[in-house]
Amino acid sequence: MTDAVLSVRNIRKSFGGIQAVRDVSFEVARGEILGLIGPNGSGKSTLFNCVLGQLKPDSGAVSVKGHDVAGTRAFRLNKLGVGRTFQQLSVFPEMSVLDNIILAGQEHRGTMLSRLFGAPDAGLTDEADRLIAFFKLAHLRDEKAGALSYGQQKLLDAAMAFMAGPDLVLLDEPAGGVNLTMLAHLKERLKSYNQEHGTTFVVIEHNMEFVMSLCTRIIVLAEGRIIAEGRPEEIRSNQQVIDAYLGG
Ligand SMILES: Nc1ncnc2c1ncn2[C@@H]1O[C@H](COP(=O)(O)OP(=O)(O)OP(=O)(O)O)[C@@H](O)[C@H]1O
Ligand SMILES: [Mg+2]
Asked: Ligand 1 pocket test: which of 15, 40, 50, 171 has the largest number of ligand atoms within 8 Å of its C-beta?
């Protein structure tokens, strides 16, 4: 695949005696919504962190739009148009919804100088407001993030990954612990964003209904290895996948 937005080759990562990721390779094409599923502890978050520079893989290579990014810091990845969320919420509870999103935009741009010398919002308020409207958070714009429901905070957390108009967004369990109404809303917004902007997603998620109805392709990890890959309907009926979940 030459038009890969993300290419991951032979990634390995161990923690002491635990081989968390064992020789994983895959590519993601422009506009795809790739699901990454697997039982607890199968290496999904570790793989994300190796891709995004939070962890240094023991071996292997990662490229984003043809640029080798192994060992690259998050700031440079942002410049390449990569956004992400973490498995744990990373909103600032004492700050407003708007300020959380503006701060995410400043991090993406790395605008230290503009923070010192520019407008206090680094000119990001309009962009933040567009994103707030897109995720239907306008009625909560000036609320402290900590006052929002858990589901609303997860939505805000996801929205923060979209400042600076990324081409590729990696989401680690965006629907974890979220109620059904918010889950449907999040899925619908991600789908629309993908359709409107052609943005590529890689989504880790345990909620099967969410993954099956959102993703165009799914990769299944078990014990650090890819055990299956295919369209949602193929994955749903794959015996190895069923066994990995029941066994896990
Ligand atoms: N920083 C770390 N130090 C030591 N071991 C770790 C570390 N991070 C992950 N592990 C181990 O690596 C393995 C993979 O963990 P990882 O968090 O990647 O799994 P996961 O698929 O994201 O699981 P979950 O679905 O529960 O989030 C597990 O055995 C875990 O205990
Ligand atoms: Mg995880």
From this structure: 15
Q: Using one digit for the tens of pLDDT, what is the confidence trace for 136-157?
A: 999 999 999 999 999 999 999 9
Q: Which ligand is nearest to the CA of 37?
A: 1
Quote the radius of gyration of the chain (alpha carbons, Å).
Answer: 18
Q: How many A from CA of 110 to the centre of ligand 1?
A: 29
* Cα-based angle 154, 74, 12 (whole degrees, multiple of 5): 95
Nearest to 192 by CA among 128, 136, 149: 136
DSSP string spanning 22-46? EEEEEEEETT-EEEEE-STTSSHHH
Which atom of ligand 1 is nearest to 224's Cα?
14
Q: Indicate whether residue 222 lines ligand 1 (CB < 6 A).
A: no
Yes or no: say if 8 and 34 are a contact pair by the CB < 8 Å rule.
Answer: no
pLDDT digits (tens, 9 = 90+) for 213-246: 999 999 999 999 999 999 999 999 999 898 888 6
pLDDT digits (tens, 9 = 90+) for 10-53: 999 999 999 999 999 999 999 999 999 999 999 999 999 999 88
